[in-house]
Amino acid sequence: MSEPEQIEENEAMLMEALKKQEELKDYVAKAGEEKPADEANAAMEDIIEVLKTVSDPEIMINVYDMGLIYNIDQKENGDVFIDMTVTAPTCPVAGTLPQEVADALSKAEGVGRVEVKLVWEPAWSFERLSDEAKMMFEMF
Fold first, then answer.
1. pLDDT truncated to tens, each residue of the chain (140 aa)?
2. 118 by DSSP, 3-state: which?
3. Assigned fold of 3-139
4. Where are the beta strands (DSSP E) in 13-89?
5. pTM of the entire predicted model
6. Distance between CA atoms of 107 and 119, rounded to whole angstroms?
């Protein structure tokens, strides 16, 4: 492939990624229902453990250790709001992985409604990997 053809192909890929990112810009996955008032809220450690049960199917590392979870906000009523990202706008699971996170977390004891918002800033990078995830990548 000639250099001009490569540049044109790269530009087309970039435009496709930007279009996909725009389509998912305001994507929010929701799950769960109001938690009974007499039920204790889940501990943050328990929420994190549930997040670790959801893996990126291409990489097979959980979303928490991948560094895809940017923020976890647990309300007094047990509702949980999460900001998460994916590795790239063209990620094939960008439209499904946040829902998987919401569904898994909504089933946890002490959790009410769950909202998972897909965010793009800051962009994900390998620096966000946990030490455990970095060791897994080094094995390959």
1. 777 777 777 666 666 655 655 565 678 999 999 999 999 999 999 999 999 999 988 788 999 999 999 999 999 999 999 999 998 877 778 778 999 999 999 999 999 999 999 998 898 998 999 998 888 877 65
2. strand
3. GMP Synthetase; Chain A, domain 3 (3.30.300)
4. 28-31, 69-74, 80-84
5. 0.80
6. 23
